[in-house]
Amino acid sequence: MDFLVVGLGNPGKKYENTRHNIGWMVLDYIASHEGIRINRLRFQATCAEIQLSGKQVLLLKPQTFMNNSGEAVRAASDYYRIPSERVLVICDDISLPCAKLRIRAKGSSGGHKGLKSIITYLGNENFPRIKVGISDRINPEMLLSDWVLGNLTEQERSALQNRYPDISDAIQKIIEGNIEQAMCRYN
């Protein structure tokens, strides 16, 4: 296995269409586009093997709930001996407007508990990530957890779905070793 592409989200019908599950939605888009299903249970995750940009890639959707995503990521990366630099994480970002992308080669969790868990389990921050905006305009009286676990509006869903091809292209560029090109094009 050459690369691990992780989509962050929470398992269960209750969370299926929530803002926090954008990482899973992106992987589902890729799987659908490639004609595969992410349904193999392994590493406390559902996963599927796929060829992207000539590389063997494991698509991984941790089933550990967001705050413990690092358990599944560490189990898969250890098993395949994938260094953190080849673990690409797709997650939501509350500080970005809906559907805006921010690609980074490494960095802190920025308060995202899924990223924090991965950093803890991998022991470093040196993994690329694609952060997908889920709106920076939340009601100040609303709890952050209520916002991220709230269902996407139809307008948000449409805006995000329009970015899936861009996210997919960015993933391929990162796998090819062209993260700077992905950052220049999509940040």
What does this protein look like?
- Helices cover 37% and strands 21% of the residues.
- By secondary structure, it is α/β, with parallel strands linked by helices.
- It has a single domain, classed as Peptidyl-tRNA hydrolase (Rossmann fold, 3-Layer(aba) Sandwich), CATH 3.40.50.1470.
- Helix 1 packs across helix 5 (154-175) and helix 5 packs antiparallel against helix 6 (179-186).
- The longest helix has 22 residues, at 154-175.
- The two termini are 28 Å apart.
- The model has no long low-confidence stretch (mean pLDDT 94).
Summary tags:
alpha/beta, Rossmann fold, 7-stranded mixed β-sheet, 6 helices
**Radius of gyration, taken over Cα atoms and rounded to an integer in Å:** 15 Å
Overall tally of structural domains: 1
- CATH-defined architecture: 3-Layer(aba) Sandwich
Low-pLDDT regions: none
Topology record:
Blueprint: E1 3-7, H1 22-34, E2 40-42, E3 45-52, E4 55-62, H2 69-80, E5 87-93, E6 101-104, H3 113-122, E7 129-133, H4 144-148, H5 154-175, H6 179-186
Helix pairs in contact: 1-5, 2-3, 5-6
